[in-house]
Each structure stands twice: as C-alpha cells, then as structure tokens.
Amino acid sequence: MIPRADCRELLHSFIENDALRHHCEMVATAMEAYANxxxxxxxxxxEWWIAGLLHDLDWEKxxxxxxxxxxxxxxxxxxLSEAIINAIKAHAPGRTGKHPETEIERYLFACDELSGFxxxxxxxxxxxxxxxxxxxxxxxxxTANFAANVSREDIYRGAELIIKPINEHIQFLIQVFE
Length: 178
Hints:
Layout (H helix, E strand, L loop, with lengths): L3 H11 L3 H20 L4 H13 L13 H7 L7 H9 L2 H4 L6 H21 L10 H8 L10 H10 L4 H12 L1
Helix pairs in contact: 1-3, 2-3, 2-7, 3-5, 5-7, 7-9, 8-10
C-alpha cells in the first residue's frame, strides 16, 4: 500500500488550492477516527485515511470528470486497494453510478459533505470547532444560503448510511476536529 507521505505528495502534486487540500485532510482525519472507533485493523485504518485524503484528487484539475479521471488515469499508477478505489467511486454516485455499499464507502460518503459544511460553520465562530455544538451546525443546515453549494440531502443521507442520528454524527466530527 502507498505510504501516507507519498499520498500527501500525490495530493499536493494535483491540488494547489489550500482550502481543497484542507478539506481532503479533514475527511482523511474523520475517516481515520471512524475506522479507529470501529476497531479496524491497521491496514484498514490506513485505507480509510487514504480514501479520505485522495477522494477529491482530480477535483481541481478535472472537475467535469471527477472522480472518474482519478479512477481511470491516476490511481492505476499507485498501489491502492480496491476498497479505496470503490470508496472514492461511491462518494460521487451521481457521477460514477457506484452507490455506497460497504462500510468504508458509506463512511466516506457520510464524512465528505459534512466535513466541508462543518468547516464553513467553524469559520463563522471566533473559537472555530472549540465549544461547537451539534445544534449550531443543524441550525446552519436549515439556512439555505449558508454554504449553499453543499448538498444537505447528501449530509442527511450520509448519516442514514452509517446509521447514526445526524446530531451524533456531527458530535463525533466536532470531537475529531477540535
């Protein structure tokens, strides 16, 4: 499997935008935390982290082909497991036709949009994630013009996929990102 340092190098070679790099790091951190909470073995924990880190690898350079460009042209050059590749496919089912089925696929889908949304919420707070409550996040979810490009439907669907109430999912991620 590709070492973490090489994954970061790959990420930086394709993504120049600091905000998108930060998002990928957040999703990787969330995925690793969930993998640990689910008592995955070290190989699986690495797979979950890598899937989170590389899920938007082609977004900046090939947005119209995302994530299919990475799946077809980038990932075959690297030692990535089928679990990682399928999770990345399943995080964008409308573009790939692959819906989240396995645990890693469901968790990547659940962490992606919500991580980005929660980051936006944290930027509006003087203390960022510190002291954040799920209620403040769910309140912003109901504000259509706040982070309007984030799919609320995907956020709620993600919580359903991992069989967690939305507030519990948010609270877990708050603790991860604090």
